[in-house]
Amino acid sequence: MTTPHSGLTASSSTPGPGEPPGAAEPSRRGRPEAASAPRRDAEASKAAILRAARYLLARHAHADITLKAVADRAGVSAPLILKYFGNKDALFARVMSFESDADALLDAPLEELGRHMVRHVLEGQTQRGADPVLRIVFAPLQGEQGETLRANFRAQVSERLAGRLSGPDAGLRAELAVSTLLGLGVMYGIARGSHLRATPVDAIVDRYAPAVQAQLAP
Predict the structure, then answer these.
(1) Is 90 exceeded by the pLDDT of residue 12?
(2) How far is CA 161 from CA 38, 80, 117, 139, 158, in A?
(3) Cα–Cα distance, 64 to 44 (Å, whole number)
(4) Are 54 and 130 within 8 A, CB to CB?
(5) pTM across the whole model
(6) How far apart are CA 134 and CA 153, in angstroms?
(7) DSSP letter string, the chain
(8) What is the maximum alpha-carbon separation in the chain?
(9) pLDDT tens-digit readout, 48-79
(10) Reported confidence tier of residue 27, pLDDT bands at 50, 70, 90
């Protein structure tokens, strides 16, 4: 999720009416700093909107979720959602896509991928408030939209992972590895296992990653 970076215009170095020559110079020097704040605010707002939409999608059917409900949960206005995403369908198309999540989830060498994926799931829940794959669990709530969610998940997560694996049964091994991750996400984020949540992330990674990595091996 990126926004275009605005540059300085030719008029930024021109003194305003009544200003002595060079009076605009401090403003020009300060402008990149000043411009960066709105961009950061925009990115934070977009992230909050996506988190809110994910949260609601896990609890309600897509057809029952209003932009006002998303806006209220995200702490923004509904018109701001329209500004950033266009409409409700475009917003939820983003939420139902796993493409950017898979980019981060699979961003490690194959021999280290099990550890990376386990850590990414845990840190997603503990630090970013968003599991990269867990929303597939709620596909049955979504009717026809659930089919979109399932199709995206298969193509963007399971099949993409399978494409990285060599040897026999790559598709099966990929699905088993992802299943193992989903089990961890469910126990941590939905069942909220007390022992699991009280254990440091590093310790869970040490215990759990070998089970994921074992499915990736030929």
Answers:
(1) no
(2) 37, 35, 11, 21, 5
(3) 25
(4) yes
(5) 0.74
(6) 10
(7) ---PPP---GGGGSPPTTPPTTTTHHHHHHHHHHHHHHHHHHHHHHHHHHHHHHHHHTTS-GGG--HHHHHHHHTS-HHHHHHHHSSHHHHHHHHT--HHHHHHHT-S-GGGHHHHHHHHHHHIIIIIS--SSGGGGGGGGGTHHHHHHHHHHIIIIIHHHHTT--STTHHHHHHHHHHHHHHHHIIIIIS--HHHHHS-HHHHHHHHHHHHHHHH--
(8) 77
(9) 999 899 889 888 888 899 999 999 999 999 99
(10) very low
Both structure tokens of 203: 């310790």
Which residue is it, tokens 């409409």?
87
d(CA 51, CA 54): 5
> How far apart, in whole angstroms, are the C-alpha atoms of residue 208 and residue 202?
10
Q: Which residue has the tokens 């999720």?
A: 1
Q: Which tokens sit at 21?
A: 């020559």
**Would you state the structure tokens that stand for residue 186, as one six-digit string?**
């469910």
How far apart are alpha carbons 98 and 75 in whole angstroms? 24
